[in-house]
Amino acid sequence: MSLLRCKPASTLIEVNVDLWRDNNPLLDDAGQYRRMIGKLIYLTITFAVLVLSKFMHKPRELHWTAAVRILAYVKSCPEKRLLYKKHEHLHIFVFSDAGYAGDIGDRKSTFGFCTFIGGNLVIWRSKKQSRSSAEAEYRAIAHTACEMIWLQKLLTKLSFTGPMPMHCDNQSAIYIAKNPVFHERIKHIEVDCNFVRDVWGKKAISL
After folding, report:
1. Is the model's pLDDT at 176 over the cut of 80?
2. Smallest Cα–Cα separation from 179: which of 163, 196, 202, 203?
3. Terminus-to-terminus CA distance in the chain, angstroms?
4. Facing residues of 126 across strands?
5. How far apart are the C-alpha atoms of 38 and 73, rounded to whole Å?
6. 175 and 138 in contact (C-beta within 8 Å)?
7. Least CB-packed of 16, 64, 97, 147 within 10 Å?
């Protein structure tokens, strides 16, 4: 099937689309869907493709439509790419965030982070977790802090010094990280709390 003349799409996937509906007809050719998703994984490496890959065992027509939309998006922006420029600094900035129960299907939270070195995006990741809102945000900080410590060790040979700033939009999570007393609400994530407080106390990161 040729999609060269398909209408370009401005986004990878529709906002708030329910891909978990079981009242949608099954695809006649599930193999065609699996082959497309396999190719898209190598072509785009996007979160949208990873979501669609969950349905390869029993794909439905709405999953095929969503996959075609990704191709339409790729057609709309062939010039988009990661651009790495030379800057006069080696500053590191990390952004961490979590979405509470954002997956309609399994109601799991998704956290993610991205790391910029010298103004260029070099590391990004997203992962699912089953947590409360504040806990999801804090575990996102803990996972991100692990990556930052690993990156700091890697950059030691480049004479990098000083705390790496981590940007988080949840004030409760930042308060937990800096407050050694806030015990009752965080006893179930005590290991993560102690780890983040330790690296923050050593000025390896700043929040």
Report:
1. no
2. 196
3. 50
4. 112
5. 17
6. no
7. 16
Closest CA to 5 of 72, 83, 59, 95: 72
User: What b/e string do you get for 161-175 counting C-beta neighbours within 10 Å, with b at 16 or more?
Assistant: eebbebebebeebbe
Let me know whether 141 and 108 are in one domain.
Answer: yes
Task: Quote the tokens at residue 140.
Answer: 């996102």
Residue 176 structural domain? 92-206
d(C-alpha 11, C-alpha 20), whole Å = 20
Tell me the CATH number at 103.
Answer: 3.30.420.10
CA distance 134 to 118: 31
Show the tokens assigned to 96. 């961490």
pLDDT > 70 in the chain, percent: 82
pLDDT of residue 34: 92
pLDDT at 103 over 70: no
Backbone phi and psi for residue 150, each to the nearest 5 degrees, phi listed first = -60, -45
Q: What is the pTM of this model?
A: 0.52
User: At 60, which helix (H) or strand (E)?
Assistant: none
**Domain count along the chain:** 2
